[in-house]
Amino acid sequence: MSKFYKKNKNLVRPLMVTLGILLIPIFGNLFTEGWTWGPLDFLIMGVLIYTTGVLVELANKKIKETNYKLAAIGGIILMLILIWIELATDAVSRFLTIY
């Protein structure tokens, strides 16, 4: 294992997971009709997934109590899901235009 990885594993691990997750839409773009992600979509989701990973690593490292750690990680993942839903469906914006 390299020195860089040992020193920065809390930043490298989320990067590797992010790249692995982004392989799914890359293959979707290549092999499936109707899956149309542009470069900006990949950038936004990459930043969102990477930030979530870094926050999970930070919570895992800094919070000692197991219940608080699970609550924090659950909250972080819930925020990822809510932001993802908003970006995918534009639901909040449509709701606000109704009222």
TrEMBL record:
Bilayer-spanning residue ranges: 12-31, 37-56, 68-85
Alphabetized UniProt keyword annotations: Membrane, Transmembrane, Transmembrane helix
Keyword Transmembrane among record annotations: yes
Protein's name according to its UniProt entry: Uncharacterized protein
